[in-house]
Specification:
about 160 residues, four-stranded antiparallel sheet, elongated
Length: about 160
Amino acid sequence: MKHQFVFTALALCIAIAASGQTPAYHANVLGIQDGRTNIQLEIPISLNRWGQVIGTYGGGQSGGTHAVLWTPPSANDGTSAGSFFSIESSPGLPAGTADTGPYGLNDRGQVTGWAYTPGQGDGNQHQSWMWRPTTLNSTKGVLHGNSGSAVAFPRVSISG
């Protein structure tokens, strides 16, 4: 009798699990570099609560590593093609920037990152910056990410 109860309970659990609806998941390719677009997101770094993704593209004929922001057509729309914005096209990055990379992205659309500035600064020649969209994302999920400006943090000399 005890074995029959365990078997019935197990069968009931399997039937409930089998009848439940499986959630739908979608994979969205963030740009194709084959002539259809000139930017792709090769290495994603961060995602905010609205579905924007910051990352890098580079190599090949792009001439280095470049920070790029992908914005979906509407908040958390992971099924449609979004838009790309190259952070390097913004004013305010350090003079002589050769490569850029992001570190983080917040819900308002602000991005922090690094710029490689050859011949400047210490041995690693990196300088940090913060980029903000011209209009910040709203707290309700209205997204902006197609223009903005950067502020480069000044270098600090540490003696000895």
